[in-house]
Amino acid sequence: MKVKKRTRNLAETRRRILDAAFKEIHAHGFHASSVDTILEQTRLTKGALFHQFASKLELGYAVVAEVLAPMMRARWLEPLAAFENPLEGILHQLRANIGDEPQAMLNLGCPLNNLIQEMATTDREFRRRLRLVIEEWIAGVEAEVKRGQRSGHVRPSVDAREVAEYVVTLHEGAFSMIKALRDKRVLWSLLTSMETVFAGIAPP
Amino acid sequence: MKVKKRTRNLAETRRRILDAAFKEIHAHGFHASSVDTILEQTRLTKGALFHQFASKLELGYAVVAEVLAPMMRARWLEPLAAFENPLEGILHQLRANIGDEPQAMLNLGCPLNNLIQEMATTDREFRRRLRLVIEEWIAGVEAEVKRGQRSGHVRPSVDAREVAEYVVTLHEGAFSMIKALRDKRVLWSLLTSMETVFAGIAPP
Asked: How far apart are CA B33 and CA A129, in angstroms?
């Protein structure tokens, strides 16, 4: 019983640290984030944090694998599976994940895109982990497009991987633009172009 | 004569510092760049640098206005003007600016996109200057699309601003993806989708 409780406490502590670290990194970037500020949010001791994460870098790696990857699945791959027509699902998720978000949140940028821009060049392990999330995202969208081909919503001749790369790229590009312009109206231009592309790959 | 020479020397010194700062920031990001490393490249004294730039931040602002903005014009707006059909020009510039770049250079990301992701949230003046470059880029592409409408290469009903936002977004998204995946093949998926969009906005 005692061991179970200790394990549960460790898991809860880890979750609290990761949530606080995610918010801090999303708002300020990895370099500008400090372990002390993250600790203040959690009201834990430095010892409790370094017991689970040997360094700030290790904490950053864990944010990618344990916060960003599940977030990508929850915001993209899991909702898409619920749509009969995956192309409709993709347009819907873009509207939901960007169009319905408050501008103040969008101004912070896509947390995955931010870390790619900041860390992919400077730290090999960060790059490896960020790339895994992007690869899983593209592969997941590709699987959805293939499902659409089987159900007759997408032409059989379409390269599903190509469509998936286009969707993920436009999403990350949209976040870059919105962050720079502080105006999410740019999203509607992108949806218009995506509708044109999707009309071209749907059966006549 | 002496005043002229001094002015010329100051301009040359400024150019050397800005070029070195641009390379350093492109390779390592703004936070991770150091004034000392930049100085080593230029073989100038700290005094010579701080005579022209009051702080590292001021140097960063100058890189945006005096290196990134002219680079955007030279790589995008000026070449586009040479194409009779601006849509062909846009596809050509995407191929030239991404497809023909060495992978090692692409791995560093788009210098403008990098700075947006790293600095737009944390520093208001950085954001203002980065936004000016993005706005000028979008407005320049929009003017080209409008020229295409006048010359009969683009349907009159097309929203030129919408097309311009789409083009710039896809470009910045492409750089994000290539930086994450370290593989520029993703560009071909994007060009395919862009060709579909452009076929839809060209006259029948």
From this structure: 23
From B113, which residue of chain A is nearest by alpha-carbon distance? A176
pLDDT digits (tens, 9 = 90+) for A135-154: 999 999 999 999 999 999 99
Query: What burial letters (b/e) apply to B91-102, b meaning 16+ CB within 10 Å?
Result: bbbbeebbeeee
The residue of chain B nearest to residue A196, with distances taken between CA atoms, is B197
Distance of alpha carbon B158 from alpha carbon B203, whole angstroms? 10
- ipTM value, please give it: 0.78
| Chain A 79-118, residues with CB within 8 Å of chain B CB atoms | 107-109, 113-114, 116-118
Residue of B nearest to A26 (CA): B121
Query: Are A190 and B165 within 8 A, CB to CB?
Result: yes
Distances in Å between the Cα of B112 and the Cα atoms of A22, A35, B126, B149 are 24, 29, 11, 29
For residues B204 and B112, give the distance between their C-alpha atoms in angstroms, rounded to a whole number.
36
CB contact B7 to A (< 8 Å): no
Burial class (CB in 10 A: 0-12, 13-18, 19+), A102: exposed
Angle between helix A160-181 and A111-119 (nearest 10) = 90
Region of B29 (left: φ > 0; alpha: ψ -120 to 50; beta: rest) is: left
Q: Which of B120, B172, B180 sits opposite A173 (nearest CB)?
A: B172
Instruction: For CA atoms A122, A126, A128, A133, give the dihedral sign.
Output: negative
- Can you spell out the DSSP letters for B157-177? TS-HHHHHHHHHHHHHHHHHH
- A87 CB-near residues (< 8 Å, 6+ apart): A145, A148, A153, A154, A198, A201, A202
**pTM recorded for the entire structure:** 0.85
**Tens-digit pLDDT profile for residues A6-51:** 777 888 999 999 999 999 999 988 988 999 999 999 989 999 899 9
What residues of A are in contact with residue B132 (Cβ under 8 Å)?
none
Q: Say which of B127, B163, B193 has its CB closest to residue A166.
A: B193
| Distance from C-alpha of B15 to C-alpha of A63, rounded to nearest angstrom | 40
Contact of A181 with B134, CB cutoff 8 Å:
yes
